[in-house]
Amino acid sequence: MEAAVAIVGLLIVLFVLAGVFVTVKAVKAAKRGVDRTVAHARRTVEDTTLRARQLAQPGVVGELAQLRLSLRTSMRATQDVLYGGSPDDASLSEAIGLFERLSAHGHELDDELKRLEREPDRATIGTRLPDLRERLERITHSAESLRWAARDRARKFADDDLASLSDQIDVESGALRHWTRVEDPMDPLRDPVPGRPESAGPGETKAPGRGQTTEGPARSGAAAGPSDTAARSWGPVPEDPPAITARDPRTQPSYPWQKAPRTEDTTR
């Protein structure tokens, strides 16, 4: 009885632990989903604000917004390509490491541009814009190089796979088209010499212009003969099985272990 109570208590503890584990996993997954949603919403709001500022505030402020928007768009596109293709191509891991190092420079430039948006001295911003624009071009050029290299690699793999698949399909298509009948040289229905008329048998007449024979008036209007059937079929026409005849006792072989037939005396 005590053993049964211990087993039941152990099962209850295991069920509680499993429930806690599942609950923690669900809470973490929900938290990650919420964080992704909040980050996506924040990026969308920031991008919309930058576009509105670029259009509504021409001059230094609008140019800063344009630089930030170009930087964020290029880095986000490269990130999507690299991280999206990494599960299928392990060779992108090194490219991802380089992109993370490049992202550090990109975040640093984005923070600097964001601080300059709150700078009241427009003349100072104007003097620093050429240097900021050059840094932006270098970062975006490197990001584009990684992005297009990853895309070219993925397209190359897709082209190779498509070419291999096309070759396999061509081979299989050729194998599926092997329905042509192979003529048997011993087939009595085959014309031994193409274009040479065969001699008609008794009671048969040659069909004009063809290598087939048809019987006389007794077979007029009947169904097509074996030649017509062979011409329309996709395989050899089965022949009639030979008739089964009894063996002649005189031709049967004799063996040394067989007893000789006993002759009865008829003189009795």
TrEMBL record:
Residues 216-227 have a biased composition (Low complexity). Residues 180-190 have a biased composition (Basic and acidic residues). Residues 180-268 are annotated as: Disordered. This is Secreted protein.
